[in-house]
């Protein structure tokens, strides 16, 4: 219970109590927490105290308010340094989260002028387009769209791509995607197809990362156009 005689304000005590409940698993990621009235009764404090504690927890990223639905415990954010090459699988592992992928499209296309220039091939030459849903835990987090020079990466047409493509390239083909080229990071709003694949509402803010990755010999590996759920991912510069 909270202690009114403690020098620490009651709303801070309540904030700490909710944080502890999240940390020890009493409130799990994605759970709806009790209402303001229920928390006020449980901890014997005013609704104003509860509201202030909740506002602080929302501001700090522990909780999210959903209009008309309640307040929910946030899923953990996956973090990575934008200037370093680290696969999605490795980023999830580093953050203590399981991962897997589902291939939604895999086909041969003709390169447009921009993609051809970045992959150092001629416009109209074949590229291998692979789209995957990337899952962190049980929920999709990223919609990955990669374009590979077809002649060099045709073997990916038949490969099992549930895990890390980077690890597959390193272990089986001596191709090490270890050099990032120019990377552009923007905020966009999810359109209908993206929202469906990422299981978010249309208009949800997404990170859009447009990048080119090279191997250890400075040969282009792929152009990447990735859409990432903004409130579950963070980049460190």
Automatic annotation (TrEMBL):
Gene3D superfamilies per the record?
A: Chorismate lyase-like, Winged helix-like DNA-binding domain superfamily/Winged helix DNA-binding domain
Family matches, as PROSITE patterns: HTH_GNTR
Which InterPro entries does the entry mention? Bact_HTH_transcr_reg (IPR050679), Chorismate_lyase_/UTRA_dom_sf (IPR028978), Tscrpt_reg_HTH_GntR (IPR000524), UTRA (IPR011663), WH-like_DNA-bd_sf (IPR036388), WH_DNA-bd_sf (IPR036390)
Zinc-finger found in the keyword field? no
- Please give the SMART domains that the UniProt record associates with this protein: HTH_GNTR, UTRA
Q: Which SUPFAM superfamilies match?
A: Chorismate lyase-like, Winged helix' DNA-binding domain
Report whether DNA-binding shows up as a keyword of the record: yes
Q: Which UniProt keywords apply?
A: DNA-binding, Transcription, Transcription regulation
Q: Which residues form the HTH gntR-type domain?
A: 8-76
Extract the Pfam families matched here. GntR, UTRA
Q: Identify the PANTHER family for this entry.
A: MANNOSYL-D-GLYCERATE TRANSPORT/METABOLISM SYSTEM REPRESSOR MNGR-RELATED (PTHR44846), MANNOSYL-D-GLYCERATE TRANSPORT_METABOLISM SYSTEM REPRESSOR MNGR-RELATED (PTHR44846:SF1)
Name recorded for this polypeptide: GntR family transcriptional regulator
Tell me the organism. Answer: Paenibacillus borealis
